Each structure stands twice: as structure tokens, then as C-alpha cells.
Design the sequence.
């Protein structure tokens, strides 16, 4: 079933706040082998002028991937999750994520199209603090493979 | 200008660890049974794990954790990770496309596994080191 193009431009209600923990940043940094002390040691981060440990650049995907279920699991849009392939990913940073941030995601559907039997879905997630400070904008493009 | 190549070894254990840390438990990243059932040659790395490793290379080149302004990739080819102690290896190189007057450096990044590109349109914009 083709995706409904009338969803383009739709914005979803902001998600519940995600509390960025120091240990989560350490765990994520360790999992990708990022050993810079500013990912792990608050004093090292503070010496560089940061409020707390600094998350690696792709850390926000933990928050945005969970938030994007709002779109991907929207029964009205009708994405077949078993056919979903992650095509593109992009981040535009206002600043890095720090431990202690409370992040809220606002999802928008930027594009929906069908070409060659495959569906394409582009989402934009604006990640900000609960206080409304923008942190990072995140785009993901998914391919929903057609039935061969 | 070319930046120094960086290589990252990726084993099954790394994928399990990344799954736990990121919350992405899609079984194609840990189960050969599921991966082959959906037509893959075997377990593949999370695209976002590859992107994270390339992100490490970018921050290393930038010389600062808060210097990355923009970073995007297209996932074009899966990174197949065999179930052995060696795993596989991702090599990351980059060249400087542009240094702007307002202090930004745009990089064109190449990531390969077994000699084949696994990303396309991999680009990062970093604040030019002073």
C-alpha cells in the first residue's frame, strides 16, 4: 500500500522529556570506542567549558529513534516496519548534547513519495531542551521496500 | 587536502555492545538466522554504528568534541561482520572540500569495508581549528 502523501508537513506533538544521564553517555562512548576524557570525566569536560560530559555526535539518535516510533508506528501512515530500511541520516548541531540535558523531540514528516514500487519517507526531528533551547536537528530517510 | 586515514575493527561483540548502548536490538545485527532470512549474507553492522565510528574520525580530525556543525551520510552497502575473532575492518578517509571565510571546513568522507564503499554522500562540516 503506497504511503499517503497528504502526511507531508505533518508535525506530531512533542515527546516526553528524555533525561540524558552521565552513565548513558559513558556507555555509548565506550560502545563506539570513543576514549576522549570529555566523554567520560566531568572534570575534563568542565575544564573545556562544558557543563558536564559531552555526548558523541551520533548520540542523539538514541533519543530520535525512540521518538520516530510516533511516525513509523502511526497506523494512519501505514509503514510496514518489516520492510523498512534506513537510507540516510543527517545531524545539524546547535551544540553537543551534555549529561543533564532534558531533551524533547518534535517530529515532522518532510517528505513522502513512492518511486519504482518503493516508498520513501523523510522525517525531521527537532531536538530541544525542555526550556526550549534548540540542540540538534536530525533528519532520517527511510526506504520501505516494495513487494517484489 | 587529504586527512590521515583511520581504521576501525568491528567484531560481533562490538555489535552486541552497540545494540545495548543504543537500544537498537534489530536481530539482523546479531542473528545470522534472521539476517539470512531477509536476504542478507549474514549479520551486518548497524548503519548508525558505522556512522558513529566515522563520527569518531571526524571529531579526531576536528580536534574538538564540539566542533562538528553538520554531519550526514547515506547508507549504501551493508557492513557484513563474520562470527569470528577478527570481524571486519572499516577504513575512513576524508578530503577537505572547502574552507569557508566564516570559519567552517567542509569534509567529504569515504568509508570502505573490504575495499568497497559502504557510505555515499558522507559529509561533515566542522569549525576550522585555529
Sequence:
Amino acid at each position: 500500500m503506497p504511503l499517503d502523501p497528504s502526511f507531508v508537513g505533518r508535525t506530531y506533538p512533542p515527546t516526553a522529556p528524555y533525561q540524558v544521564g552521565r552513565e548513558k553517555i559513558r556507555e555509548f562512548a565506550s560502545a563506539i570506542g570513543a576514549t576522549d576524557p570529555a566523554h567520560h570525566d566531568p572534570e575534563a569536560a568542565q575544564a573545556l567549558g562544558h557543563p558536564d560530559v559531552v555526548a558523541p555526535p551520533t548520540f542523539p539518535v538514541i533519543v530520535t529513534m525512540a521518538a520516530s516510533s510516533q511516525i513509523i508506528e502511526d497506523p494512519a501512515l501505514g509503514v510496514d516496519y518489516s520492510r523498512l530500511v534506513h537510507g540516510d541520516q543527517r545531524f545539524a548541531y546547535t551544540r553537543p548534547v551534555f549529561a543533564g540535558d532534558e531533551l524533547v523531540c518534535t517530529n515532522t514528516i518532510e517528505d513522502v513519495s513512492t518511486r519504482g514500487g518503493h516508498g520513501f519517507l523523510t522525517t525531521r526531528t527537532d531536538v530541544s531542551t525542555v526550556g526550549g533551547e534548540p540542540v540538534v536537528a536530525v533528519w532520517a530517510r527511510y526506504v520501505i521496500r516494495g513487494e517484489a | 587536502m587529504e586527512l590521515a586515514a583511520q581504521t576501525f575493527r568491528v567484531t560481533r561483540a562490538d555489535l552486541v555492545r552497540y545494540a545495548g548502548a543504543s537500544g537498537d536490538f534489530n536481530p539482523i545485527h546479531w542473528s545470522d538466522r534472521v539476517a539470512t532470512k531477509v536476504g542478507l549474507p549474514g549479520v551486518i553492522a548497524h548503519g548508525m554504528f558505522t556512522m558513529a565510528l566515522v563520527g569518531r574520525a571526524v571529531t579526531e580530525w576536528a580536534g574538538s568534541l564540539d566542533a562538528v556543525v553538520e554531519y550526514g551520510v547515506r547508507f549504501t552497502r551493508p557492513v557484513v561482520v563474520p562470527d569470528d575473532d577478527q570481524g571486519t575492518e572499516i577504513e575512513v578517509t576524508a578530503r577537505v572540500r572547502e574552507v569557508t571565510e566564516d570559519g567552517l571546513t567542509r569534509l567529504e568522507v569515504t568509508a570502505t569495508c573490504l575495499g568497497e564503499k559502504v557510505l555515499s554522500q558522507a559529509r561533515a562540516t566542522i569549525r576550522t581549528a585555529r
Summary: The interface with chain A takes residues 8, 14, 17-18, 20-24, 47-49, 51-53, 55-56, 58-59, 65-66, 68-75, 121 of chain B (CB under 8 Å). The first strand of chain B starts at residue 2 and ends at 10. Chain B has three helices and six strands.
